[in-house]
Amino acid sequence: MTDGGDGTERPDDSSGAPTDFDRLEIIAERLSTDDRFARVVLRPEFAPDRLVCVYDSGFYPSSVHTARLEIVWFENGDFSIHYHEEQRDGTFDHRWDRHPSEHNARDHVHPGPDAPTPGADTTHPPDWRDVLSMALAEIEDRQRAFWT
Asked: What's the predicted TM-score (pTM) here?
């Protein structure tokens, strides 16, 4: 884990490949027009290798103070998508990963609420757009569950 600069810990999710900033720019352009997000920041100071998307607070009850999505993509197709909530009583973390690992297969997920290591081996779609859609859909399911 590495310090996220805002008091949170970020996983060490290095692929060994260079960050794909072109891909992150494309994702940033798409998500910056999405009403789910209050703010989309490419390469913030505390995370210069990633895209950080802060969810609009209207999707959450008052017990969730903030929620964000951190995305890092690598030129070899590896990635880490980290969903993080700051809640009144703690945090919720969930990660979708594709990278070499000593604890899991290359494709794996670290499920919420605490994104444990080792995670669970899985198979992610080969296309980055499908991976992103899958993660966003799972987060949307979580958001709906707050209200049902």
From this structure: 0.89
